[in-house]
Write a structure and sequence with these properties.
Elements (H helix, E strand, L loop, with lengths): L8 E3 L1 H5 L5 E2 L2 E2 L16 H10 L14 H9 L4 H4 L8 E3 H25 L12 H4 L28 H6 L10 H7 L2 H5 L9 E3 L1 H11 L15 H12 L24 H10 L7 E2 L2 H9 L6 H13 L4 E5 L3 H4 L9 E8 L2 E8 L4 E6 L6 E7 L11 E3 L7 H5 L2 H41 L5 H6 L6 H15 L9 H14 L7 H7 L16 H24 L5 H7 L1 H11 L20 H23 L2 H5 L17 H5 L3 H7 L5 H13 L10 H12 L10 H27 L7 E3 L14
Parallel strand pairs: 1-13, 4-5
Antiparallel strand pairs: 2-3, 6-7, 7-10, 8-9, 10-11, 11-12
Helix pairs in contact: 5-19, 5-29, 17-20, 17-24, 17-25, 22-25, 22-31, 30-31
């Protein structure tokens, strides 16, 4: 049940960036007369930059001559190694929560802007590219090679090597060249130093309302009276702050609380809300059929007091085996290079009353068993392993009560709420690092570099894929320099080394062909032919994403049939040297010289259908897949206790310890009263939820393609009429999806409160834009 009466929240990127104009005296007034009444949404760029100079935070050029020969070699091979050399300046001592939000917003905007400028100037992602043949392009496009033994190596999965000319980078003994190399350009633009500034803008201590006015002048962060949304001793205090700020009129709001989030719902913590997030939340991509191993575990681990729920699980396993599903994060320790029973934890420093104090963040590897009703399509959590430590004996398993309880009863079941939070914490990590960062951003970058390395700009496949790469390389480079080291790694329970290994594991485990939407859904227990059945009515993401795959594939098949016509399409594909080179470089092992992406699951394309599927997958990742798992982050994660990135107390080591949990223990485990971590965890989803807008949407791409080719003659392009026809059909199918996807959204049980519409054609981005 929602706390507001204004109707359902429309879950689109628009809801994440919507702005309400105030109505004063019956007329719309854009700006109030008194600047004290303005809730500043962003800093003016010039004012912000001048303030960086005043605070001695402006980035300075690194002196590369001071590096050792070994360090110079690493930097020459990959200028992103400078990120390990550039050290951030000291943090601001005091500041307000609101001012810090504004500073982070502007800082990340500047970082992204500078990386885009670099990619343009270095000719990796030029605004208007100069056509190059394959041999020339190979001087620009090559892969990095992870090296865990090199402290300066960025150690991300293989990605675009910003050193460009590999022969030069390998032979060079110093970076001081007469011409401006990509390494020199990277340094002269202060990209490494700029990327390190974000943590310096987060003050050592945050000030509440009573001290804010005086301290704002000191901290140069005068942006209104602002409390701390993380502060409180009870869950209700955090909920009340959130709803109080959300309830203010527009001109009185002093935080970015005009954006809806799940904390607006008074029953946000219930089993229904919890479970539905794995169908229409930020990560609806990993829920899968329960294995025999996990069913046996949940049967064997039950205690006498769990008899009712155990009987239900046993009956379902015999009579409705296909209705038992899991969210399985048990692999976390292995993926991070840890022992099966090692504690997932990371120490960090913070300032308390002017003194540096050590704290510890904890992670968990939870497993949750669900039942999917064949009649209602609702998921219900049955049992949870809070943190899988390699065996039943070393892990704590808790069971839900049967029959289901009211929301008020669930509100005070602190052990069960803690267990569900363990699942959400595990899912935060899997979503941000695996599903979002790796499976979309990094995999797409690998395909971009592979295509650039393999195809001339005039090749039909290249021209079909190029529009879906807008901004991606620059955004990824900015993420490697800023978001991952200074946000994700500052929020999770893994150490930096463990986080690196976890990301590499995610990349190396990615099943390119197995992730084709129809195959992926079938493997996880949602056959495409059942998506219109009652059991799938709440899985709106699956219904939308499967439909989008079909639309994209039909367009790709039609377009490629022009270059590879029947009856010799398979033969022509198999003989195309560019396609052969693409497969080889994608599958080839990473190496310091002439290495590949190391993506072994990439297909060896020998038939027309294989080519259609591979190209479809590249567009699918860049457009609907990324759109669907990116643009809802603000709604579900801005209210941090719904889905916290880590815990702040050690997970219980016994069932008895867990069952003794009360609200006090639950609150201590959450990011409550951790202002820095709350700010990062809540504000970064806001930054990542800016909607693409129609001008950068997939449907606008189809419309533009049609309009470019509709008037062309065959002597200008021999395929012009056919291209216009396929583009027109693609546009029509995308336009039809508006009503189609609205129906899918309305079919969900909670559509009267939350409308799932993230893949509406207006929000479905043409590429990974943010």
């Amino acid at each position: 049940m929602a706390s507001q009466d204004s109707g359902p929240v429309l879950l689109t990127p628009g809801a994440a960036v919507g702005k309400t104009e105030p109505v004063i005296g019956g007329e719309t007034q854009t700006w109030p007369q008194d600047p004290e009444d303005v809730p500043i949404a962003m800093w003016d760029s010039g004012t912000f930059v001048m303030e960086l100079i005043n605070l001695h935070l402006s980035p300075k050029k690194l002196q590369l001559t001071e590096l050792t020969k070994s360090e110079q070699k690493t930097v020459n091979a990959n200028p992103e190694a400078l990120l390990a050399v550039a050290l951030p300046p000291p943090c601001i001592k005091e500041g307000t929560y609101r001012g810090t939000q504004l500073a982070i917003t502007k800082m990340y905007e500047l970082v992204e802007s500078n990386y885009k400028s670099y990619m343009d100037a270095a000719n990796f992602e030029p605004t208007v590219p100069t056509p190059l043949d394959v041999l020339k392009k190979r001087e620009f496009f090559s892969f990095t090679c992870p090296n865990l033994d090199d402290p300066l190596a960025d150690n991300f999965p293989p990605h675009l090597n910003l050193a460009a000319n590999k022969d030069w980078s390998i032979k060079a003994e110093t970076s001081q060249k007469s011409s401006l190399s990509p390494v020199d350009l990277f340094n002269k633009m202060r990209l490494a130093q700029l990327s390190q500034l974000l943590p310096s803008l987060i003050p050592e201590s945050f000030l509440g309302r009573s001290a804010s006015k005086a301290a704002q002048t000191v901290a140069n962060l005068k942006f209104g009276d602002m409390g701390r949304p993380d502060a409180g001793n009870t869950i209700k205090e955090v909920e009340d702050y959130q709803r109080r700020e959300r309830g203010k009129s527009f001109w009185k709001r002093n935080d970015i609380f005009d954006l809806p989030n799940i904390g607006d719902l008074i029953d946000w913590y219930t089993d229904e809300r919890f479970a539905q997030q794995f169908f229409t939340g930020t990560n609806p991509t990993t829920i899968e059929l329960a294995s025999d191993f996990w069913i046996k575990h949940f049967l064997d681990s039950a205690q006498p007091e769990d008899a009712k729920i155990r009987t239900k699980i046993e009956k379902l396993s015999k009579e409705a085996r296909g209705s038992l599903y899991v969210q399985d994060y048990s692999y976390f320790r292995e993926a991070a290079g840890m022992g099966a029973s090692d504690v997932i934890k990371c120490e960090y420093e913070y300032v308390d009353n002017g003194k540096k104090v050590k704290g510890t963040r904890y992670g968990v590897a939870a497993v949750c068993l669900f039942h999917l009703s064949e009649d209602t399509g609702k998921l219900a959590p049955l049992a949870i392993v809070c943190d899988w430590r390699g065996s039943k004996e070393n892990s704590v398993t808790i069971y839900n009560q049967e029959p289901p309880r009211s929301g008020s009863d669930q509100a005070v079941d602190w052990p069960w709420r803690y267990a569900k939070t363990c699942v959400q914490t595990s899912d935060w990590l899997q979503h941000e690092v695996t599903v979002h960062l790796t499976n979309t951003h990094l995999i797409e970058e690998a395909t971009i570099v592979g295509v650039q390395w393999s195809f001339p700009d005039t090749h039909f496949v290249f021209q079909l894929l190029y529009p879906h790469w807008q901004k991606t390389l620059a955004l990824n480079a900015a993420a490697r320099g800023t978001l991952v080291p200074h946000v994700i790694n500052e929020l999770i329970g893994f150490t930096k080394e463990q986080s690196t290994r976890f990301t590499l594991h995610a990349f190396n485990s990615f099943d390119f062909q197995g992730r084709y939407a129809p195959e992926d859904l079938r493997r996880r227990g949602f056959p495409p032919e059942t998506l219109n059945d009652a059991r799938s009515r709440n899985y709106a993401w699956a219904r939308c994403i499967h439909s989008m795959w079909g639309k994209i594939r039909r367009y790709v098949e039609g377009m490629l049939s022009l270059e590879y016509p029947q009856p010799n399409a398979d033969r022509d594909v198999a003989r195309d040297p560019c396609i052969r080179d693409w497969c080889e470089i994608m599958q080839k092992d990473p190496a310091f010289k002439d290495g590949g992406a190391g993506l072994k699951s990439f297909p060896t394309i020998r038939t027309f259908d294989q080519l259609v599927d591979a190209v479809t997958m590249c567009i699918h990742i860049a457009s609907p897949q990324h759109t669907s798992i990116n643009y809802l982050q603000n709604y579900y994660q801005a209210f941090v206790i719904n889905k916290p990135p880590c815990l702040y107390t050690p997970p219980p080591v016994s069932r008895a310890e867990l069952m003794a949990y009360k609200e006090k223990e639950f609150v201590l485990a959450l990011p409550i009263n951790h202002p820095k971590e709350w700010l990062l965890a809540s504000h970064i989803p806001y930054l990542l939820s800016f909607k693409p807008g129609d001008k950068e949407s997939l449907i606008q791409y189809a419309c533009s393609k049609y309009n470019v080719y509709k008037a062309k003659r065959r002597d200008e392009d021999r395929h012009a009429p056919e291209i216009a026809g396929y583009a027109r059909k693609f546009y029509t199918e995308l336009a039809d999806s508006e009503l189609e996807f609205k129906k899918f959204g309305r079919d969900t049980f909670d559509s009267s409160v939350i409308t799932y519409d993230v893949l509406s054609p207006s929000w479905n981005a043409v590429s990974i834009l943010i």
